[in-house]
Every structure is written in structure tokens, then in C-alpha cells.
């Protein structure tokens, strides 16, 4: 890994910032890799999960990876342009002074990508990394070994190791990877692991972007269409069997409508999945450890008095490592299911009495990666938006803000720091260098010693309200 890093850094320094044409060529190669090997990618993911919807993988890990690369390809020339800024005081501009920002490549960017969407959460940020003119080293998850090895092989076919390289291995490799002196490090994963990543990066003062998770709430307003809200909420909750960083983690529903809304959730699930047993559209849990963790959350909730409302009659006929969607009612904060991110098809449904009660329940927890609100009352919607701080928001749906190429994606506090996607990704992986060019007239002589009456007159004009 040190050799690859040294090779990339040497190439970056010796070649200088890549031209727009070269950046576009690299983006094209990444797009071509995904297009030409789409089926291979989907089948590798299916094998890694035990079962995963092939069409689902083509949507989330192939098509959703191609779009940000194409977006970057279309806009990289405009993103690279020198950005003019005003000089101050403005009189300097009249004398010929100029100020601007150049967006320089940072150099070599390390990418630690997770197991839930291995290709999307590598190639979506790679769009900004390559558009910004950087080189990249990638460490994919050991939990999806077939996908990681396929990624390593395909990247090696499309890129020289001095441009982009993939390093595979287990936790010890990941630990060594995050300790490398990158010019920027992007980590996507658990908040608990992010603390170790940030600590390792601090040894070399490596700037970090952390894309984490947390308990993302869905607030269902009294005026929301229950069946439409339930359908859209359960799409986000069953996508990849809930193994999504922006999956709705719990739903807040008006107290008097909890039972009716759970019934709507059941109707939504049965429309998407008429059968669950051997359904090719329904994804398995990635491994036995995570499956056991989710079963443990259900057992703990039941033991403490919660009621499990299974949302499909075939919930006990799914086979290995599959868990049916389930609503959990009667939960409280002492239950494990309400303490950490679920990352599975379990949906606690909590009652609220008024919108300020719902807001207080959300704000009583760490700031989430995503916030969802279902309802058409514009004033209430704005109240929620103004009172709740979250990484990103989708109104009247779930997950969709993540797919917007021109919106920044990122968390806040325990759900992450920094953002990427579109121009925000370009700027995250660039150094915004301010440049000032002085006027020909020697204006700074006015503030150079020896000081006298002139400087005092100048100061009187500047030091005032």
C-alpha cells in the first residue's frame, strides 16, 4: 500500500494537474467498466449476500453509479474554471487588483467503501475524486469478498495503478489503509468505526469525509395519505432489506392512527412482495452475524413488552438469513432497537401527539443522516425543516435525496462530516486556493512603516461602525 501511494503521489506531482480531457477520459473509463460488467457485478453481489435482487443491484450499484459519473463528465469543464472573487476594499479593483479561486487537485484520495452498496459507494464518490483531478486508492469491505475481488480486477483492467488502485483484505488491512498519509480520506461505514478512522487520519493531519448513519426518522403527518406514505416508506425500508445508511429507522405516527398505519404498511409490503418465500426481489441479510444481531433486536423488544406486527403472512417461511419486514409497536428507549441504527427490515412505529412532540422525539436523539416527512401542510413542513437538523431530507418519499446528483450528500455530527455528489464532491476533493494579484500602483506603501499622520487618517476611515 505504501508503494502504491508513493507511485500515485509521484505521478501526480510529476504530471501536474490533469487536463479536462484526461479527467473526462478517466470518468469515461469508470462508466465503461460499469456498463460492460453490469451483470457480473449484480451476480457477484447476489452471491455475497446469499441472495440479493439482481434488478435491485442493477438499480442501486450499477445505474446509480453511472449517473454521478455522467453528471461529472458533463460538468467538469465548468467546475474547473477559475472563480473570480471581489477584491476589498473595492477601490483596489479600480486600480487593477484581482482575486480569484483556483480548484486544485488534493492529490491521492483514500476511499474506504462499505459492504451494503460496494460499487455505488465507491463509484459515486469516485466521480468527484476523478473530476477534481485526483488519484485514488480504494479499500472495499471484506464482508463482500466476491464483489471486492471483482472490483479489484475490473479497476486494474481500466486504470493503471498510478491512477486508481484497489486493495483488498480484512480488518488489519483496513486499519493499515486508514493510517496512510493520504491527501484526503473518505470513509463510509459505522459511527463506531469512524472514531478509529478519524484518530488514525489525525496522525498525518489527513482531512476526512465521514459518511455514517444513525437513526433516520420518518414523520407521518395527520394529513398524509396513509397508503401512499406507507408504500414509499416501505420501499426505503425494504430496499436491500433495510441495509441502507439512509433507510428510515423508525416512524413517528399520530397516536390515534398507529394501528391504521401499520395496516397500511402491511398492504404496501404485500403489494411489493405478493410472496416472500424464494422471492427473487427480496434481499437476504449479508451474513450470519448481522442476521443474529437483528434477531437479537426482535427478541429484546419482545422480552421488554413490544409487539411485533409482521407485515407479511409468510414471515416464518423465508429460509436462511432472510427476515420479513416487521413493524414494532410499544417500543421505548430502553430497548436495543431504539438505541443504535437498525440496518435491517425492522421498523419501530412510535406515537406522537402533536408535531412539536414529534420534533422533540427526533431532537432527543443524535442528529440523523436522513429525515423524512410525509404530509402536505406547508407550514408544518417548514416547522419540521427549521427545527430538525439532519444530513439530508426527502419530503413525501424516502431515499430519493441521495439520488440527486446536484444535491450535497452527507451527515452532521454522529451521522458524518463533509459531503459529496456533483459540484459539492468536486469541491470536497479539491483544494480551493485563493489567489490575489496586486495592482501595479504600490498601494501597500500606505500601510508600511514609518507610520505618521497618513496611516492614522486611513485607520480612522476603517475603524468605525
From TrEMBL:
<dbReference type="InterPro" id="IPR016162">
    <property type="entry name" value="Ald_DH_N"/>
</dbReference>
<protein>
    <recommendedName>
        <fullName>Aldehyde dehydrogenase</fullName>
    </recommendedName>
</protein>
<feature type="region of interest" description="Disordered">
    <location>
        <begin position="1"/>
        <end position="20"/>
    </location>
</feature>
<dbReference type="InterPro" id="IPR029510">
    <property type="entry name" value="Ald_DH_CS_GLU"/>
</dbReference>
<keyword id="KW-0560">Oxidoreductase</keyword>
<dbReference type="Pfam" id="PF00171">
    <property type="entry name" value="Aldedh"/>
</dbReference>
<feature type="active site">
    <location>
        <position position="211"/>
    </location>
</feature>
<keyword id="KW-0520">NAD</keyword>
<dbReference type="InterPro" id="IPR016163">
    <property type="entry name" value="Ald_DH_C"/>
</dbReference>
<comment type="similarity">
    <text>Belongs to the aldehyde dehydrogenase family.</text>
</comment>
<dbReference type="InterPro" id="IPR016161">
    <property type="entry name" value="Ald_DH/histidinol_DH"/>
</dbReference>
<dbReference type="InterPro" id="IPR015590">
    <property type="entry name" value="Aldehyde_DH_dom"/>
</dbReference>
<dbReference type="InterPro" id="IPR012394">
    <property type="entry name" value="Aldehyde_DH_NAD(P)"/>
</dbReference>
<feature type="domain" description="Aldehyde dehydrogenase">
    <location>
        <begin position="19"/>
        <end position="432"/>
    </location>
</feature>
Amino acid at each position: 500500500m505504501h508503494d502504491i501511494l508513493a507511485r500515485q503521489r509521484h505521478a501526480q506531482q510529476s504530471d501536474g494537474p490533469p487536463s479536462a480531457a484526461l479527467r473526462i477520459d478517466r470518468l469515461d473509463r469508470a462508466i465503461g467498466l460499469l456498463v460492460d460488467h453490469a451483470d457480473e457485478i449484480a451476480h457477484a453481489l447476489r452471491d455475497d449476500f446469499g441472495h440479493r435482487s439482481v434488478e435491485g443491484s442493477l438499480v442501486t450499484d450499477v445505474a446509480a453509479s453511472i449517473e454521478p459519473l455522467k453528471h461529472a463528465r458533463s460538468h467538469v469543464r465548468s467546475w474547473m474554471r477559475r472563480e473570480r472573487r471581489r477584491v476589498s476594499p473595492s477601490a483596489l479593483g479600480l486600480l487593477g487588483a484581482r482575486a480569484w479561486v483556483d480548484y486544485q487537485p488534493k492529490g491521492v484520495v483514500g476511499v474506504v467503501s462499505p459492504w451494503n452498496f460496494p460499487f455505488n459507494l465507491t463509484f459515486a464518490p469516485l466521480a468527484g475524486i476523478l473530476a477534481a483531478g485526483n488519484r485514488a486508492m480504494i479499500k472495499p469491505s471484506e464482508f463482500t469478498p466476491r464483489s471486492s475481488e471483482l472490483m479489484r480486477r475490473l479497476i486494474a483492467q481500466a486504470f493503471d495503478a498510478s491512477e486508481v488502485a484497489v486493495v483488498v483484505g480484512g480488518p488489519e488491512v483496513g486499519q493499515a489503509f486508514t493510517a496512510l498519509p493520504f491527501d484526503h480520506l473518505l470513509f463510509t461505514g459505522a459511527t463506531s468505526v469512524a472514531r478509529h478512522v478519524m484518530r488514525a487520519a489525525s496522525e498525518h493531519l489527513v482531512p476526512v469525509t465521514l459518511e455514517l448513519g444513525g437513526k433516520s426518522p420518518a414523520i407521518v403527518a395527520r394529513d398524509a395519505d396513509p397508503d401512499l406514505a406507507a408504500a414509499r416508506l416501505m420501499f426505503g425500508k425494504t430496499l436491500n432489506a433495510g441495509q441502507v445508511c439512509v433507510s428510515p429507522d423508525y416512524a413517528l405516527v399520530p397516536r390515534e392512527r398507529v394501528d391504521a398505519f401499520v395496516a397500511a404498511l402491511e398492504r404496501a409490503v404485500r403489494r411489493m412482495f405478493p410472496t416472500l418465500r424464494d422471492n427473487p426481489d427480496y434481499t437476504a441479510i449479508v451474513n450470519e452475524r448481522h442476521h443474529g444481531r437483528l434477531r437479537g433486536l426482535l427478541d429484546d423488544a419482545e422480552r421488554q413488552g413490544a409487539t411485533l406486527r409482521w407485515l407479511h403472512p409468510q414471515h416464518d417461511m423465508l429460509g436462511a438469513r432472510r427476515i420479513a419486514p416487521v413493524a414494532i409497536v410499544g417500543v421505548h428507549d430502553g430497548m436495543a432497537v431504539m438505541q443504535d441504527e437498525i440496518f435491517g427490515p425492522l421498523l419501530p412505529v412510535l406515537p406522537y401527539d402533536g408535531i412539536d412532540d414529534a420534533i422533540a422525539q427526533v431532537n432527543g436523539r443524535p442528529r440523523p443522516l436522513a429525515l423524512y416527512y410525509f404530509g402536505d401542510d406547508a407550514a408544518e413542513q417548514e416547522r419540521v425543516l427549521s427545527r430538525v437538523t439532519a444530513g439530508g431530507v426527502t419530503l413525501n418519499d424516502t431515499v430519493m435525496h441521495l439520488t440527486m446528483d446536484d444535491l450535497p450528500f452527507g451527515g452532521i455530527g454522529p451521522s458524518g462530516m463533509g459531503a459529496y455528489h456533483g459540484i459539492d464532491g468536486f469541491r470536497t476533493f479539491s483544494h480551493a486556493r485563493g489567489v490575489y494579484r496586486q495592482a501595479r500602483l504600490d498601494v501597500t506603501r500606505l500601510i508600511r512603516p514609518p507610520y505618521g499622520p497618513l496611516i492614522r487618517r486611513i485607520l480612522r476611515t476603517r475603524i468605525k461602525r
